[in-house]
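Name: tRNA (guanine-N(1)-)-methyltransferase
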Amino acid sequence: MKIDIISIFPEMFSSISKYGILGKAIKKNLLTIDYFNPRHFSENKRKRIDSKPYGGGPGMVMMFQPLTSAINVSKKKSNNTTKVIYLSPKGTELNKKKALSLIKHSYITLVCGRYQGIDERILKTVVDEELSIGNYILSGGEIAAMVIIDVISRLIPGVVGNIDSINSDSFSNKLLEEPQYAKPKTILNMSVPKTLLSGHHKNIKEWKLKASLKETLLKKPNLLLKKKLSTKELKLLVLIKKKLHKNSF
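Structure predicted for tRNA (guanine-N(1)-)-methyltransferase:
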């Protein structure tokens, strides 16, 4: 997969491209990341990329020419096959389903805005989609782009060594992942659940499902409304609710 980043601060991405899973993916040539700085494409003598907004208001707006020129270079490089995504709080919110649809594209261009945003005419001419990582405001699109790169790159075949770790991640089956434990067995009088130490695979599997349902019920109950629960999951959920209700008195 190839990802182009349009950003006035490309140096910010060194932190994710050199380390961890992403660093390994790049070394294995499973992922290629390239950068285009709009300042390098500005036709302004001072290489300006922003101006005051028409109609007044606070802040500055990224101008059409520098940003569009940078995007067009990325498009040309991909033979016009790239999907151009602008990182924006107005966009569709990123989730697992959206991430899976993105990895179907072999080429993606992520546009990182700054200041008050970008000229609307950029969205209407060279951007294919607006994408958000949440309902809040960041100082720029770079961090959002890093999140998206990390999320989608883990889904590229060969990037994560153990595919089961992806399939069992939170949200993979619309449930939160069960609690995890590591050595030692006891810390501050808190012990690892006996079932996980039993070696009984069937019981461990059921414990994990029950724990996953409980985590979801307590922390993100809205997910349960979106998931079609099996008969077994429904029965376990009823038992969990009864036990929680009993312990609350």
